[in-house]
Amino acid sequence: MWFEKKRSHCTGEKNHTLLFFPYSGGSSDVFDELLSHIQEDIDCYVFQLPGMGKRLLEPLRNDVENIVSEAVSEICDIVKQNSFSLYGHSTGGLFAFLFAQSLLSMGLRSNKVFIAAEAAPHIPEFLEDPASYNDEEIYRQLKGYGKLDDECLQDDDFKAFYYPIMRNEFSINYRLKHMITREKSEHELVLVHGKQDNHVSYENLQAWQEYTHVLVDSHQVDGGHFFEGDINKLVAKIVSSSL
């Protein structure tokens, strides 16, 4: 199963479905705080890659074309004839857009595509596939996010467990950006940027405008690259007001 059901209403009515895609290294639980502020009549599902969260024991994968091909059929089963939107944070934003493209080619049009904290695909984060990165390169990349302190990043147990995961996740980011073609679509994009994000600039997030004919709807919140605590209330308001 590619999606974990976080909230679903079996009312017989057609509810709006919101599909969430985590940032690199994030399990399906990273959206729990945000979901607690999303209006209750929305069905919520979170994408989960192998090797993370409840799929921890499964082998890591970075074959993004096969991942998208396998997971898109599950999305079809989830949304059925309901209206739906997609929300992705960082690398999850690339997944959200790519799935929206795949679904549109199948005749399923998303209501909105929310992209938070991710530069447009033509702006690379990596100049080569990080699948070949050594531990020092993984350390420098993680250090740049500012989320984890040096003691944690240099811990041997942490490195043994988390560095292979992040090497794979960074490779996924690289490969997703190469999969997305620089063409105009009809997707309605809602962009969310943290004012203190030192990893993705507002201008690089705004560059998603090059991927849609529709004027993007842009928002900024007081936070960094990762949205934590009360910031999620503001993000939830942005989501609710956009649907």
Short account of what is shown:
By secondary structure, the chain is an alpha/beta fold. Helix content is 37%, strand content 16%. Helix 7 (202-206) links the parallel strand 6 and strand 7 (217-221).
What does this molecule look like?
With 243 residues, this protein is of the alpha/beta class. The chain has helices at residues 32-35, 64-79, 91-105, 135-145, 150-153, 156-179, 202-206, 231-242, and strands at 3-7, 16-21, 42-47, 84-89, 113-116, 189-194, 217-221. Helix 3 (91-105) runs parallel beside helix 6 (156-179). The protein is globular and about 50 Å long. The two termini are 27 Å apart. The model has no long low-confidence stretch (mean pLDDT 94).
Main sheet summary = 7 strands, mixed
Strand content: 15-25%
Spatial shape: globular
Tally of strands: 7
**Oligomeric nature of the chains:** single chain
H/E element sequence? EEHEHEHEHHHEHEH
Structural class: alpha/beta
Radius of gyration: 17 Å
Secondary structure: helix percent: 25-40%
**Average of pLDDT:** 94
Alpha plus pi helix count: 8
Going across the biggest sheet, name each strand in turn. Answer: 1-3-2-4-5-6-7
Pick out the low-confidence regions. Answer: none
Distance between the termini: 27 Å
Helices, strands, pairings?
Elements: E1 3-7, E2 16-21, H1 32-35, E3 42-47, H2 64-79, E4 84-89, H3 91-105, E5 113-116, H4 135-145, H5 150-153, H6 156-179, E6 189-194, H7 202-206, E7 217-221, H8 231-242
Parallel strand pairs: 2-3, 2-4, 4-5, 5-6, 6-7
Antiparallel strand pairs: 1-3
